[in-house]
Amino acid sequence: MLAPILHASCRPLYLVGNTPAINLTAALPQGIDADILSLGCGDLRHVLFTCYAEQHLPKRKLDITCCDIEENIIARNILVLSLILDGNDVATPEQIWRIYYNLYLDDNDMQILNNQAQQLLGRSLTLDEWHDSRYGEVIRICDTDTLNLLRVIWSTFFSSATAKDDAQYKDKFEAAKKSSRAFKDLSQGEDGFSFTAIRAAAPLYQSVAEEFIKANNRCWDTGVADPETSDAVTFPNPMFATGMSERAPLAFPSDPLLSFHLAPAAAKLTELSPLRLESSDGKDRLVATAQLMFGKWVESVREALAESRLIVRFVAADCFSLCHTLQHNIETHETTANWYRREVGFKVFELSETDYGKEGKAPRQFDFIDSSNISDYHGVLNMLISTGPLLKDEPWAAVNTDLMLRGAADDSARFEALLVGHTKTVAILLGLMPIEYWTNAMTYMVSDELFLSMLESSRGDKGVGIQARLAWKNAGTPKISVKAQELANLAHQVYLDMFQNENISKLTRQFMDMHRGAWFPKFHRGSFTAFIKILCKRLSVNAAEVSEMILEKVVEDTSLTLGTNNSQAFCVDMQQMGIWDIPFLQGEIQHNNIHVGFCKWKEIPPVVAVTLKIPAKQWQRVFKYALEKTADLMVEGNVLCDSPTGGYHNIFADTQISFGKVVTSGSTDSDEFSVEVQENPERFAGHASMVATFYVSTGGLQSGIPWTKVSLRMKNTPQNIILFAGLLGPEMSIFDSKLQDEKHVFITKLAPGHSAYPVVCGSLPPPSSLGDLSTSTGSSATFSLNLDPQSGNITTVTGHVDITTEQGKQLLADKVPIEVQQVSPSTIEIVFGKQTLVLPVKYPAPVLASASKTRIARKSCYVEVIAPLATPITSPCLEDYVFPTVLSKANIPATLSIPHLSLDTLPIIDISDKSAISFINPYSALIFSNRERALRGQVDTSGLSRSSRLNLKESIFTMLMLASGLQGGQTGLFAVSRPKDGVHILVFVSALRLDGASGGIVLDAAVLPFTRKLVDAHALDEFLLILRTLECATITVDDDELKLWKTILPALAERCRTWQHDPATCEYKDGKVPVSVEPGQPCLCSCGQGKIPEDYVSLPEWESAKKYATRVAISPLFASQFVESSGDVDMMKATAASEPPKERCRACGRTEGRDKGPLKKCMRCLEVKYCSVECQKKDWKKHRGECEEADIYDLD
Question: What is the DSSP string of 1121-1188?
Answer without folding.
Answer: TTT--B--HHHHHHHHTTPPPPP--TTT--SS-TTSS--EE-TTTS--EESSHHHHHHHHHHHTTT--
